[in-house]
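User: My instructor asked us to take a sequence, write out its structure as tokens, and then describe one feature of it. I'm not sure where to start. Here is the sequence I was given:
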Amino acid sequence: MKLTRKQYYSRISRLIKAGLVKRQKGKYFVTAFGRVIFDSHRLLGTAIKNYWKLKAIDSLGVANDSKMPKEQRNKIIEELIDNLQLKDISLSTKF
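Assistant: Let's start with the prediction itself. The structure tokens for your sequence are:
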């Protein structure tokens, strides 16, 4: 990715203003907020890659159907979803 000097500093400035990056002693560091945003962005990408598997779970009525035994529901989700974070979210009964 080739950036001009102006483009580079303009983008760094926007990251700083957003609170994603900070500068200390002439070096740039990702903030705690920046790490959270990065991790969330990565999780969204994984969810998009698994979109059809998540749709399959919904189409089977697995997502929130109380008629299906919990063990069977969990087994289907365990088999379909590989990513641990997506699996945890899918197995959650909060929603």
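For the description part of your assignment, you could build on this observation: Strands lie at 21-24, 27-30. Try explaining in your own words what that tells you about the chain.
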